[in-house]
Amino acid sequence: MNQVMEQLQRQFREFADTRVNAEFHDHLSILEVAGQLHIDFCGSPFDEPFNYLRSSLARTEIASVIGSLSLRSHSDLGVNGTRNWDLWMLVHGAVVFPNLRSFSVEQNNPDGQNRVIVGADYDESGVLGRLLRKSPALEKLTVPSAPDRSFFELKSHPLRFLNVDAGYDTQDFIGNLAASSCFPNLTTFEFGEFNETYLDDFQASCTPFDDYRRLFMSEAFSRVKMFVWRNPVCSESEMMKLRPLRSKGVLQIKIVQFSSRYL
C-alpha cells in the first residue's frame, strides 16, 4: 500500500511547477486507514495531473482499495464557461471499486463564473450510472450533474446519502427517482434545480412540479429524513402542498436559494 501512495505522490511532486505559487499547485492527499485509501484531489480537471490520477485509479490494485475519493478545484477554472470533470477513464473498463463508500465531485458556488459538471464535454452520458454499478458498497455520492435513467437500473444499492445538482440537464432525474426502487436505504437527499437563469426561458428546462409531487408520494422517498432543495422554481403555495403528501415518518425540508448576475 505504501508503495502505491509513494508512487502517486512522487509523480505529483514532479508535476509541480516551482515557478507557480504553491497555492495553485494541484494537490493530492492520500490517507491510509485500515488498509483503504482515502483520496482527495484539488486541482484542474484539464491538466496532466488529473489525467495521471484517473489512469492510476483505474488500475485494479488501486481501485480495489479506494475507500473514498474527492475531486475539487482550487480556483474558478473553466473552458467556455464550463468546468467539466471527465470520469470516463475511471469507469469504461472492467475495473470495479468494491470498497468505495464515498465519492464526491465539487458542486457549484453562487459566485462561480464556470458551471461545474460531470462529462467529457457538456453531457453526463451515463457515466454516473456506470460508476454506481462499479461501486457496490457506495453509501455517499455528491455530484454536480444529474445522472440519466441508467443510474436506476440496479435492482438494489446501499446508497444512503445522495446530493445532486442538475447541471446543464435535469435528465428527468426527479421523475426517474420517483419511479425507482433501487435505493431502499436512502435517508438524506439533496437536489439543486436547473439554474441557468441567464436563459430567457430557463424555467422550461426545470423539473415539473408534478414530478416533485410524485416523488413525495413514492416508495423511493418514504425513508428520506432530510431533503435539501436548492433553487426550486415552484411557488411557495406549491411547495406547501408537498409536505402533506409524505405520510411516513419525519421529514425535514430545507430550502436554499442563491443566484448571481452581472450589472
Please write out the topology:
Elements: H1 2-15, E1 27-33, E2 36-42, H2 48-57, H3 60-63, E3 66-72, E4 82-85, H4 88-91, E5 102-105, E6 115-118, H5 127-133, E7 140-143, E8 161-165, H6 173-178, E9 188-192, H7 209-216, E10 226-230, H8 236-242, E11 252-256
Parallel strand pairs: 2-3, 3-5, 4-6, 5-7, 7-8, 8-9, 9-10, 10-11
Antiparallel strand pairs: 1-2
Helix pairs in contact: 1-2
Describe this structure in words.
With 263 residues, the chain is of the alpha/beta class. It folds into two domains: 1-145, no CATH class; 168-263, no CATH class. 23% of the residues lie in helices and 22% in strands. It contains eight helices and eleven strands. The strands form two sheets. A nine-stranded mixed sheet has the order 1-2-3-5-7-8-9-10-11, covered by helices on one side. It has a two-stranded parallel ribbon with strand order 4-6. Helix 1 runs antiparallel to helix 2. The radius of gyration is 19 Å and the shape is globular.
Please sum up the structure shown.
With 263 residues, the protein is of the alpha/beta class. The chain is built from 8 helices and 11 strands. Helix 1 (2-15) packs antiparallel against helix 2.
Radius of gyration: 19 Å
Unreliable stretches, pLDDT < 50, 5 or more residues? none
Count of discrete alpha- or pi-helical segments spanning 4 or more residues: 8
Overall 3D geometry?
globular
Query: What share of the residues lie within helices?
Result: 10-25%
Count of the domains:
2
Mean pLDDT: 92
Largest beta-sheet characterization: 9 strands, mixed
Q: Reading side by side through the largest sheet, how are the strands ordered? A: 1-2-3-5-7-8-9-10-11
**N- to C-terminal distance:** 53 Å
Element string (H = helix, E = strand): HEEHHEEHEEHEEHEHEHE
* Total count of strands: 11
Structural class: alpha/beta
Beta-strand residue fraction? 15-25%
